[in-house]
Amino acid sequence: MLLAMASETDKANALLQLFSTASVISSLGLGIFCYLADRLLQYSFIQQTYWLRALSDNMVHGIIGLWSWAIVIGLKKKSDFTEVILAGFLSSVIDMDHFILAGSLSLKLKDSWCFLPWMMFISWTSHHVRDGIRHGLWICPFGKTVPLPYWLYVAITATLPHLCSFLLYLTGTRELMSIKHGIRIDV
């Protein structure tokens, strides 16, 4: 049975909001944050202390993930903050891949979380693109790329929320979230 589809007007509005002034400014802010955070992490007092370097790097991953997801969904209601915090958390724990692979992240409401794969996509991608400036991207089964140019990392990170939002639209996830769960995404 087909789910009720969003009207053409709703679809057009969703696409227009994809490049709204607020989301574009937020993306520019995200790019600036990436640049400034990476400059800060280069200070010798951070680089010389392993735990401080790891903690700082992990915090930047988390902030990029939560900021990116905030751009994708917009912050319209109180429950949106929970999703944004979760996206930041997921961006931070990606380094602990055994945590995810072991299935220790038990979500009782997993069937109602149709947005979770998209949240994981943006969290995972933003994390690995940022790591790609140092180590390159690992693309199975082809191996590693050369390290990403810094400008490309900033550009990908700043545009990733828009790509994710557009993919939500193309796959119908945006509509499903609205119909099934009452979640409205305005980007």
Automatic annotation (TrEMBL):
Subcellular location: Membrane
InterPro entries xrefs: TMEM267
Main location: membrane
Transmembrane segments: 15-37, 58-75, 150-170
UniProt keywords, alphabetically: Membrane, Transmembrane, Transmembrane helix
Topology in the lipid bilayer: Multi-pass membrane protein
Domain of life: Eukaryota
Any one cellular-component term (Gene Ontology): membrane
Protein name, entry field: Transmembrane protein 267
